[in-house]
Design brief:
The structure is a single chain. By secondary structure, the chain is mainly alpha-helical. 53% of the residues lie in helices and 4% in strands. It has a single domain, classed as Serine Threonine Protein Phosphatase 5, Tetratricopeptide repeat (Alpha Horseshoe). A hairpin with a 4-residue loop joins strand 1 and strand 2.
Length: 112
């Protein structure tokens, strides 16, 4: 019989972010899980996952633990050319938008 490998802390972290389990995410980040890990297929950052699930508290927690908001703003735009902040605004995720702006997200859309 074949033994399956146990999921890594980062795998569990990704699932906890998607489920909105703030307590488990905090526990894993206090341990050895990385706030810069990814989740899903195709992979996306934990911060993008939290935003797409409209988990405001999770967004704040990930930013508090060092999720790189600047990288998200400069990285590839995976939502039809929209940056993280603009995508959240287009979805009507007001509290998530507030959380991102409070933590320094740039409201400029890059258009001239």
């Amino acid at each position: 019989f074949a033994l399956e490998a146990a999921p890594s802390a980062n795998d569990v972290l990704g699932e906890a972010v998607l489920c909105g389990d703030v307590a488990l995410v905090r526990l894993l980040l206090d341990g050895n899980a990385s706030v810069e890990s990814s989740v899903g297929s195709p992979p996306r950052s934990l911060l993008r996952a939290a935003v797409s699930e409209e988990h405001q508290e999770m967004v704040l927690l990930l930013l508090m633990y060092g999720a790189d908001l600047q990288r998200e703003q400069e990285g590839e735009d995976v939502w039809n050319g929209q940056q993280l902040l603009h995508w959240a605004a287009a979805q009507g995720y007001v509290e998530v938008v507030r959380a991102l702006l409070d933590r320094g997200a740039d409201g400029a859309d890059g258009r001239e």
